[in-house]
Amino acid sequence: MSLTARLFIKGHQHEQKGIKVLSCNYNFTQSSSIEEGGRAMGVVKAGLINITIPGINDAELVQWMLLRDMRKEGKISFYGIDPQTAAQQETKTLSFEDGVLVNYYESFTDESDMTINLSISARAITLSNVKWETEWDVLNY
User: Fold this and answer.
1) Measured between alpha carbons, how far is 24 from 51 in angstroms, rounded to an integer?
2) Sign of CA dihedral 58, 64, 48, 2
3) How far apart (Å, rounded) are the C-alpha atoms in residues 102 and 92?
4) Number of other CB atoms surrounding residue 51 within 10 Å
5) Domains and CATH numbers, the chain
6) pTM for this structure?
7) How confident is the model at residue 112 (pLDDT cuts 50, 70, 90)?
8) How far apart are the C-alpha atoms of 82 and 69, rounded to whole Å?
9) In the 8-state DSSP scheme, what is residue 12?
10) Higher model confidence: residue 106 or residue 137?
11) Is the pLDDT of residue 100 over 80?
């Protein structure tokens, strides 16, 4: 079971130590047909990674959001405790390539911590050493 997670963005000022992740979600989907007995009928879709981080003053994230052509590479590393050594170790990694920040949302609630919600649309995602990729028309991007 993962206890913590960190977001690492290549070239970011916090690239080495990462940014604490409060929550994240991502998924892979494909359509199915009831007429075909539930058989998968479509192309696997993925690419959107939603992340909540603590509200930090980070101009690099705002710039990434505002520059529509800016693509980043990065990963989310999940860490758990090794039951034999009680040491923290990386248990899972989700990496992304050609990530475009498509949503930046700051939220504040009185007497609570500010949070930032990010949505990264990625051309390629690797999860558990399995890579999913889609084709993007680079010329019209």
Assistant:
1) 4
2) negative
3) 24
4) 20
5) 4-30+42-135 (2.30.110.20)
6) 0.84
7) confident
8) 41
9) S
10) 106
11) yes
